[in-house]
Amino acid sequence: MVTPAPTRRRGRPALHPDRRASILEAALRCFVDRGFYGTAIPQIAEQANIAAGTIYHYFESKEVLVNALYRQWKGAISQHVFMAFPQTAPVRTQFQVMWNEMVSFAMTNPTAFAFLELHNHASYLDAESIAIERNVKEFARVVIEGAQKQGLVKPLDARVLMELMFGAFIGMMRAHWEGRIPLDDAIIAGAELACWDAIATH
Q: Pick from 33, 37, 25: which is nearest to 72 by CA?
């Protein structure tokens, strides 16, 4: 008696983590090079060397894809900073560690960092992506307010001081990537000191 071949269930094909990762990597390059609105799914598929339809097995739309990418890298930089943050150290040391860890992440992952800055506060970010960004800012705000209670930081709205710090950091990294300024340990340390002096009481 011949055993009949098993019937294959129709439906969504099996998903492969490696293929999902390759789609995210291709999307990262495309979104940085062309922006969200300038990137089409077929361009991402070409970069990933897969059929365009395959992407929809993993991500329902371009919006879902960009949010998955944003959460991946925003979570990565948050984890990078949070894991190194010295909870019981003096405020001055905490500030130095935050600065140096952000620089370390940006230098190691320049494309991902550029992506985060290009797509920060974008209208297509969903509630989950926005929540991750708010958690990062909330962490920095709490640190600054703790320093204010100790009289170490200017009594200005902590959110303003936080934006001054992040703005200076992002400007420094952008100027470096555009070839306008070199970065070495001395310059990075000097920039950190200048930012601290800008918000610290004297």
A: 25
Task: Determine phi and psi for 129, rounding to 5 degrees.
Answer: -65, -45
Residue pair 99/187 in contact by the 8 Å Cβ criterion: no
- Residue holding tokens 């320049």? 110
Paired with 82 in beta bridges are none
d(CA 156, CA 146) in angstroms, rounded, equals 13
- Range 8-14, long-range pairs (CB < 8 A, 24+ positions): 12/57, 13/57
- Mean pLDDT on 12-19: 67
> Is residue 10 over pLDDT 70?
no
Measured between alpha carbons, how far is 146 from 140 in angstroms, rounded to an integer? 10
Cβ atoms within 10 Å of 46's Cβ, excluding its own: 14
Q: Are 178 and 160 in contact (CB under 8 A)?
A: no
d(CA 139, CA 161): 13
Task: Determine contact, residues 36/121, Cβ cutoff 8 Å.
Answer: no
Q: What is the mean pLDDT of residues 90-100?
A: 95
Sorted by where each starts, the structural domains of the chain and their CATH numbers stand as: 15-60 (1.10.10.60), 63-199 (1.10.357.10)
CA-to-CA separations, 131 to 120, 136, 189, in angstroms, rounded? 12, 9, 31
Residue 134's alpha-carbon distances to 55, 95, 137, in angstroms, are: 29, 19, 5
Please report which confidence band the pLDDT of residue 14 belongs to, taking 50, 70 and 90 as the band edges. Answer: low
